[in-house]
Amino acid sequence: MKLPRFFLLLLPAWALFCPMASAQEQPVLQIEGLRSESEIIRQQTGVTIGSNGVVVRYGTNTVLTANRITLNETSGDVLAEGEITLQNEDQLWMGDRLQYNFKTRQMQAEAFKTGSAPFYVSGLSLRADSTNRTYSSANAIVTTDDAAEPGYRIRAKSLKIVTGKYIEARRATLYLGGVPIMYYPYYRRSLERHPNYFVLTPGYRSLYGPYLMGSYHWSWSTNLDGALNLDYRQKRGVGFGPDFHYDLGRLGRGEFQYYFAHDEDPGTDLAGRPIREDRSRFSFSHQATLRTNLTAKVVVRDQSDAQMIRDFFESEYRENTQPRSFLEVNQLWSNFSLDLLAQAQVNDFFQTVERLPDLKLTAVRQQLGISPFYYEGENSAGYFRFQSASNPLTNYAAVRADSYHQLLLPQTFFGWLNVTPRVGGRLTHYGETEGFGSTLREQDRAVFNTGAEFSFKASRSWGGARSAFWDVNELRHIIQPSVNYVYVPSPNKLPRELPQFDGEIPSLRLLPVEFPDYNAIDSIDSQNVLRLSLRNKLQTKRKDGIDNLANWALYTDWRLKPRRGQGSFADIFSDLDLKPRSWLTFNSENRYDVDNGHWRLADHTATVQPNDVWSVRLGHRYLRSNDPAFSSELGNNLISSRIYYRFNENWGARLAHYFEARDGTLEEQYYTVYRDFRSWTAALTFRVRDNRLCEDDFTVAVTFSLKAFPRFKMGQDRDTPSLLLGS
Question: Which of 92, 307, 588, 643 is spaced 20 to 30 Å from 301 by Cα?
């Protein structure tokens, strides 16, 4: 089953999951059609069935729209399917399938996505329990990157949200882009407001000398809180600045951060130029729901030099090395969305494609009346400017207008074979380029595409399969092969003849080939390819419900007419997750080069976590050297380990090592000892980093955390280890 399309919801998670106040009077259910072809059938049993676009209103604050609904007006239960929006006061849900009760506000969805600063959450199989106000989801994603396309995320096997208290994720993996970086057996994020308090982190780092990181956290009201930071580094000097977090209700919410440091030893930048002693970082973000389905977000990230956050905010730097500034406005309708994106080069030392602005109208896949055909499309126009980080002579700009339309005809044959043929076309206009970096004339490019997707799903169950040792209670095997054929003849203008604003970015994952998912507009070239995929699931019943013993996906491209430099087959990709026991997991991602007969990527992790006393995680990541698309010059052959052990109620320890086998370098090592006190927790951390070409960087830090408002818990990897160093 395809993952439904969802859109970012501009609501803070702690508000999103809070129950609404009950009305003075019992609200009334009102049902009406969205279109002339909408159909509403009321049955004598009290059940109402709606199709072809229906809206349900409950009182003045709750509105549900969907393509199809089945509503029990007595109980308030509704099953909604297809292009769903659920608005409840300032809450908004969107999806393709939802079970909801208007009276109790209990909810069950196959997938969801929501978020606002400081984090964003999405997941599958959402369940809501209004009694204890607890929400749980499987295969969830958590991120605190507020960019339009987050550069990092945490993918968790399970997610638990306790209203107004915390978000808790288990068996989580940190990804940078599509690359897994680190595994967290446990991640927790507090949602509670807090009283005023101090945080002090003393330590020693070879780059800083002795240091003391201090912050005073205050809360003026439920809508305004912040912190005042004052840091001293013996070799680098003093740094200070405020943080503010505010919530203006319907006017939106956001944050403001400023940090200034008089750096007594700033060093040089990547180009060898001296960095000024006065260094600063400014950050501002705000987002608001202007009206129903109309949201806006503005983000400004300004820093004095490219190394500012690297030198003073290591954790932030590891998550986002080049923060962007942008304005984003989004208007949603049942079948369309209108997006405006404005992006400027605030920091001239980061290469940027400016969008001044970029306006896009998207038509989501929708049925054309009562016909069997479906339509989807995209229309965009904007002024784009490529801004180099090092050479202004390479800058250029141009106007671009793009229009794409596609028709689809989903069919089912023999009761099991799903076939979806499609045909589409794209016309893109480029204005004459401006600037020294390009001298291209005004031109138009036309692209035609066609193809078809074939898929089916089969399953078999073994009711008698039992094993106490493997915690197996019945077995079910699901297999889902698919073939997606894509044909794009050579366009009248090749990529090398066009300005490149939205080009194809190298990735460790298999890039999309089907429009409109393939969004590298300026890099479109001929395609004659079959995308082959095979998905397998082996499931069993466990105490928490249905659990996947194995989840394995294989996919590749068979290029019927390879372009220059391409082989007949793309790399073979394999994603495998094994869970033979609830406390034992194995994850594997592989990429095999068929033409040259070698592995380009092999990433494996095994985790053992039988209880809260100890856990072990072992990993190996291989990235082939001399691969210009993805790897560093020397490649990557990293062996990692993370061990946690709790000696008793008061003491615990964690060890982490990252060993690069290609040259025998122990790149990074962490040693942390935890002490659990009655009302707070302390951690003593020692870290050594081998920088190869310069002196080793070593750090010793002491971190304190109030249990009521924890920055970390004893042995629980709530954050990246560098946060325990005060950075």
Answer: 92
